[in-house]
Amino acid sequence: MDESKTVTLNNGLTMPKVGLGVWKTTPAEASQMVATAIANGYRLIDTAKQYGNEAGVGAGLQKGLAENHLKRQDLFVTTKIFNGDQGDYDKVRSAFNDQLERLQTDYVDLLLLHWPVFNRYNESWRALEDIYKDGQAKAIGVCNFNVAHLTNLLDHAAINPQVNQIEFNPRIHQPETVAFCQGNHIQLEAWSPLGNGQLLTNPVVKQIADKYGKSSAQVELRWELQQGFVVIPKSTHSNRMKENMAVFDFKLDADEMEAIAELDEEKHSIWYDKFKWSGNPEGVEDYIARNEII
């Protein structure tokens, strides 16, 4: 099967379809994961200030580049603006410069607002637009924005987002957000593409996996790729990393796509619904102070 392993964003930048996520890893773990991933052919690495491991990712990037004789432009590096830095133009710019230092690079390929922090994201976006214009980010986007957030952002933005990174897997589809992004040429990217592994033993998924001689994880990733998503599964093991990349040599048919789609419960995989980050009456400051918004 001859299939491109990249997508083209609305500004013309190409982005790998499969990357490595490093949430919930220490700096030391992230460093080793990133270096191992690069050796296994990964070119997209996704981190965030909130993860607390940007310095580890930066070290892993340098090691991976040196050991594999690659250049910085061979990689696609993503990080995100911390919620506590949002809402003040100068603070966003200053905090992002510190992020670049930790990542040991003078630019990122994609910079995202980590959450639509209530009454702050439009001012934060203004900073991202200038970061983009200055060449410190090759593309800019958002995470976890729904239709209301995106509509409001587009009403104020000079530059439309290139990417919206949302939770998407067989258990949570967010169809309204997906349709809006597709209709507005905003690339969708799936975090938690394996849904915390909650459906890896599901008989529907396992039966399809057995048919193709693939793992359940590969089937779920393939299901997302065929819907146009970029995916960033997390793995600390070299063999699993290789497995997660080996998803371009088979294709699910329409019945299989529908069978997996029917597993939808519209349930977030972790903790999502208890946080009122998008407009809470208690005040967003309390949530930021408690670092409860990842």
From TrEMBL:
| Origin superkingdom | Bacteria
Domain NADP-dependent oxidoreductase residue range list: 19-264
**InterPro entries (UniProt xref):** AKR (IPR020471), Aldo/ket_reductase_CS (IPR018170), NAD(P)_OxRdtase_dom_sf (IPR036812), NADP_OxRdtase_dom (IPR023210)
Give the signal sequence positions: none
Record keywords:
NADP, Oxidoreductase
Query: Per the similarity annotation, which family is this?
Result: Belongs to the aldo/keto reductase family.
UniProt name for this protein:
Aldo/keto reductase
Lineage from the top down? Bacteria, Bacillati, Bacillota, Bacilli, Lactobacillales
